[in-house]
Design a protein that fits this description.
- Two copies of one chain form a homodimer.
- By secondary structure, chain A is α/β, with parallel strands linked by helices.
- Chain A is about 50% helix and about 10% strand.
- Chain A contains 17 helices and nine strands.
- Chain A has a seven-stranded mixed sheet, sandwiched between helices. A two-stranded antiparallel ribbon of chain A has the order 1-2.
- In chain A, helix 11 links the parallel strand 8 and strand 9.
- In chain A, helix 8 crosses helix 10 and helix 12 packs antiparallel against helix 16.
- The N and C termini of chain A lie far apart (about 50 Å).
- At the A-B interface, helix 6, helix 8, helix 9 and helix 10 of A face helix 6, helix 8, helix 9 and helix 10 of B.
């Protein structure tokens, strides 16, 4: 792989991603200003993740809005591969999905793919991925979802419902398709090969079109689903993609739940957050204070600034002030990190309380096989 | 494929099978006289299908008997791919399994692979294969199994139980393995590729060794299972194989539930049986009566004789008499066919009564997901 190249698949992200190139490579559509305004108009307000290009790309979002304006409902679906505890990057599509659910008054399905992570991680047992599935569910519930319109699917618990749908999808996908889309080889295990049909299954769980807010690395699964959908007489799923959330160490990868120090977990305590940000968060600042005051920092590559932009500072004015101050050299890296640490810890204090309360609620959210 | 060659896979049987060659090709063991006598001694009697080499090959049958004699129990497992109504060839391993169950006092699992037949037959829907699964279950129950020690598994109904076991198996099998064993290609659908792990799953449903009586064409699935078993800390399944039951048209294939006129269905009425045998059953006789009286017939290639040998005439003396009379020319092909027709219709009259009664019993046999 050359220095400028990058890889984006559901199981491997590497290199500095050029999102315009990725849109071309994946064949998705960039979210235009026109589409932004249209969403804003229907929703009654904008969302900072849309304004800031955190959600940057889509498939068939216009069709979803056309149908919606004609009075035809859709449902939402997103998910998580439970390979470890939830980190703050995972929350991005979930928070946005909650906003979509509130604005469009839709039903929501959340899939926890314990089987996928068992297949893809050599050292994880199925008992472990299932345990993480229940842990991750707490983070999802803590964001304010309601059991009346939100159902959590756990693959091994809901396989009775998923498998007959997945089988109809799987019959239309051959090994070549999975090689082309995921880069599978003859060494890939047959659980992994079959798995994409299970990630497709929730798209067809209701007799309505689906909109999927998700990290762009998951797009390949639904490229396959979209090819299969008309062959089984179903509407193609629509997608809206967020960028990859950078690891603490900086761009050139995504946060990984299985690498402790690249990530802030939702279960980290205040002191751990402080230490991780101070020690690991990649800085766009200059080597010393004098030089920083003179030349200023680079917020575009600074991970602390990026976390504020992506998740922790929804106020555009405050964010702009931080940007300007850091860029001019007025704000030092330590000061920027302090802002982020306080924001994260404020968020996590509240989140962790709700997360514990969710333990009593989780049963009400679990999808029941009929 | 050369004239003398043959193909045996779970989905395709072609050519005249040389069973000694097949034993070498698959790496199984021929059932020796010593093993026959040992089974007879433990069971208290012999079974004509063993004596006549209908069951001709095995894997680890000796280990099963060693353990059994030490007081360590095993369980039985066999199955059926429900692509159509049951034909008389399907009954061979089931009848033998019933005998094993009675003699060894074991539990029995019977798997109906509605998903497999959906994946492998382009024109069948999942609803159709599931419908046939319930129909086939009636034939199985009609053979005299008891719900106390016999459970019927239907893949799409019991996937909740099967999938977590299958997933542990699937993680240890890669695409190369399935290419080598089944001859899969890049065009094979991913349902088919994954499926073998679901046929493995019942092997590990109890914490005991399993013995599987089955058509030798199904051996490839369990060759994979036997490779995987030690990797997941389980005993290798033991197998005992029956020969392929010839189509009415003669050797060079097996009976196929999806080709109407190659087969006697358990649901055929007496008149249909008579017509099919008279019209289609391949004859080892001579072109005309004079020549037949002079030269005699060849029972070894005569399908009517073979059906008597394989299933419908358990009495060795009576069978020998038919063999000798046909070979000498004393018995004409029409007379031989008449014996078979009467035997089949006598069997089916009784079977069809029990089959209808089974409709009320089937619920008691169905495996319940915990």
């Amino acid at each position: 792989m050359s220095k400028d190249d990058f890889i984006v698949t559901p199981w491997h992200v590497e290199g500095k991603i050029d999102y315009d190139k990725l849109i071309k490579r994946f064949g998705t559509e960039k979210i235009s200003n026109e589409l932004l305004q249209r969403i804003e108009k229907i929703a009654g307000e904008s969302h900072f993740m849309l304004r800031r290009g955190i959600f940057f790309s889509h498939r068939d979002m216009k069709r979803i809005l056309d149908d919606y304006e004609k009075g035809n409902d859709f449902f939402l679906y997103t998910g998580r591969g439970p390979s470890g505890h939830t980190h703050i990057g995972h929350l991005v599509p979930w928070v946005f999905a909650k906003w979509l659910q509130d604005k469009f008054k839709t039903k929501m399905y959340f899939q926890l793919t314990d089987d996928e992570k068992f297949f893809s991680k050599p050292n994880l047992t199925l008992d472990e991925t299932k345990k993480y599935a229940y842990e991750n569910a707490l983070d999802f519930i803590a964001l304010g979802f309601k059991p009346e319109n939100t159902k959590i699917i756990i693959d091994t618990e809901n396989i009775q419902t998923l498998y007959p749908i997945a089988a109809r999808v799987a019959k239309k996908i051959n090994f070549s398709n999975t090689k082309a889309v995921f880069g599978f080889s003859n060494d890939t295990n047959i659980g992994m090969i079959f798995y994409t049909s299970l990630q497709s299954a929730p798209c067809f769980i209701e007799n309505k079109p689906v909109l999927i807010p998700l990290g762009v690395d998951q797009d390949p699964h639904f490229r396959i689903t979209r090819d299969v959908a008309p062959k089984i007489g179903k509407p193609k799923p629509a997608l809206i993609h967020n960028i990859m959330i950078p690891a603490l160490q900086g761009p050139g990868g995504k946060m990984s739940a299985s690498e402790e120090n690249t990530t802030i977990y939702t279960t980290d305590d205040a002191d751990t957050v402080k230490k991780k940000i101070n020690k690991y968060a990649f800085s766009g600042g200059q080597p010393d204070v004098e030089e920083h005051r003179k030349k200023g920092g680079n917020p575009d590559i600074d991970v602390s600034y990026q976390y504020l932009r992506i998740f922790f500072e929804p106020d555009d004015n405050k964010l702009k002030q931080i940007y300007d101050d850091y860029k001019s050299g007025k704000m030092l890296t330590g000061e920027l990190k302090l802002i982020l640490i306080e924001k994260i810890n404020e968020f996590l204090k509240n989140h962790q309380e709700k997360r514990e309360k969710a333990r009593d609620q989780v049963k009400k959210f679990l999808f029941e096989n009929s």
